[in-house]
Amino acid sequence: MPSSDERERWNRKYRENPEAWLDPDPFLAQAFSKYVQPLFPRGGSALDLAGGAGRHSIWLAKQGWKVTLMDISETGIELARRNAGPLAPHIHFVVDDLTQFRASQTGFDLVIGFFYLERGMFPEILKAVRPGGLLVYKTYTVEQLKLSSGPKDPSHLLEPKELLRLVEGLQVLHYSETVAEKATAEIVARRKDS
Ligand SMILES: C[S@@+](CC[C@H](N)C(=O)[O-])C[C@H]1O[C@@H](n2cnc3c(N)ncnc32)[C@H](O)[C@@H]1O
Questions:
Q1: Which atom of ligand 1 is nearest to the CA of 48?
Q2: With contact defined as beta carbons under 8 Å apart, do 121 and 98 qualify?
Q3: For ligand 1, mutation pick of 10, 11, 186 (most atoms within 8 Å of CB)
Q4: What are the C-alpha distances in Å from 121 to residues 14, 65, 67, 154?
Q5: Where are the alpha helices (DSSP H) in 63-121?
Q6: CA of 11: how far to CAs of 17, 95, 151, in Å?
Q7: What SS3 state is found at 46?
Q8: Helix, strand, coil percent values for the chain (each to nearest 5)
Q9: Residue (of 5, 18, 90, 1) closest to 48 by Cα position
Q10: From CA 127, how far away is CA 63, in angstroms rounded?
Q11: Lining residues, ligand 1, CB within 6 Å
């Protein structure tokens, strides 16, 4: 789907159901306490890819992190700014098309991605993690096709073990695939110190 259609589709979703994306996925807090916090006890910089209405950026800002939230939907970003309330100054809100994303030289201590998959972006995603930093990623797998709800476009669903291949070169600290209410794969991986 062209990016402009995707933007419209998400703008509409966020307008029609602004309350649907408020609670952070539990995997963020789990990965944070086990892997992120021990490595960065004083906080750091994070990039939230396709962060939508901001539930994960806001959670990280609450933990004292400085976050950049990128998303193609200006309605999602507006909602994120509103949802962040007094934490908004700790979040840099960027409306952008991630298919054009290029990692900056500085990189981030932590890069997160939840429920967004654009395979071609992974080389840039890995570059966006600074040496010694972490990637926390979770999204749907093809097993989702057997469930009654959720996304059905295979181009946005991970094949078995595909996430492991996409992060090749990083040190994998945690990986699992689950079929429950949603079918997902999740990973925590670390970029080696240079
Ligand atoms: C399923 S939502 C997940 C949002 C957020 N990560 C979360 O878990 O709450 C997918 C998000 O991807 C964003 N998105 C889709 N295509 C995009 C693109 N090309 N560039 C940036 N964001 C995009 C949508 O606007 C939407 O906010």
A1: 6
A2: yes
A3: 10
A4: 24, 24, 20, 17
A5: 74-84
A6: 10, 12, 17
A7: strand
A8: 40, 30, 30
A9: 90
A10: 24
A11: 3, 6, 10, 21, 50-52, 55, 71-73, 76, 97-99, 114-116
Total structural domains in the chain? 1
For the stretch 10-57, pLDDT in tens is 999 999 999 998 999 999 999 999 999 999 999 999 999 999 999 999
Residue type for position 138: K
CA of 12 to the centre of ligand 1 (A): 13
pTM: 0.97
Cα–ligand 1 centroid distance for 6 (angstroms): 9
Task: Give residue 55's domain range.
Answer: 3-190
Give the domain CATH number at 169: 3.40.50.150
* pLDDT greater than 80 at residue 2: no
